[in-house]
């Protein structure tokens, strides 16, 4: 297990729940980039694949938590986009 990889993922992981709550409360997709969210999602997918193929350890749980948070934010983006179109 790499301490530095774990540190990076924990730092990112701390920010995602805050971002998800902010997206939920904002009820708008303005100032959000779906391209950014998808790029982060794909990055986590690659990290998970690497962990499954080459280096199974506890860090995989942090990757899974982070990708779930990004998935929630992507879902909220589309919900908020729909709400923006209604207005």
Describe the structure.
The chain is 84% helix and 0% strand. The chain contains three helices and no strands. The chain has one domain (3-86): Monooxygenase (Up-down Bundle). Helix 2 packs antiparallel against helix 3. The N and C termini lie far apart (49 Å). It is an all-alpha fold and 87 residues long. The protein has helices spanning 3-26, 34-54, 59-86.
- When the domains are counted, the total is 1
The best one-word shape is: elongated
The CATH topology is given as Monooxygenase
- What is the SS-derived class? mainly alpha
Q: Which percent range fits the helix content?
A: over 70%
Q: What is the level-2 CATH architecture name?
A: Up-down Bundle
Q: What is the CATH class designation? A: Mainly Alpha
Radius of gyration: 15 Å
What is the number of helices?
A: 3
Q: Secondary-structure element sequence?
A: HHH
């Amino acid at each position: 297990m790499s301490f530095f990889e774990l540190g990076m993922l924990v730092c990112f992981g701390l920010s995602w729940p805050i971002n998800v709550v902010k997206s939920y409360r904002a009820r708008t997709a303005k100032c959000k980039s779906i391209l950014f969210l998808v790029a982060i999602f794909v990055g986590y997918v690659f990290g998970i694949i690497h962990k499954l193929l080459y280096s199974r350890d506890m860090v995989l749980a942090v990757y899974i938590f982070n990708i779930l948070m990004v998935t929630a934010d992507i879902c909220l983006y589309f919900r908020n986009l729909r709400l923006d179109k209604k207005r």
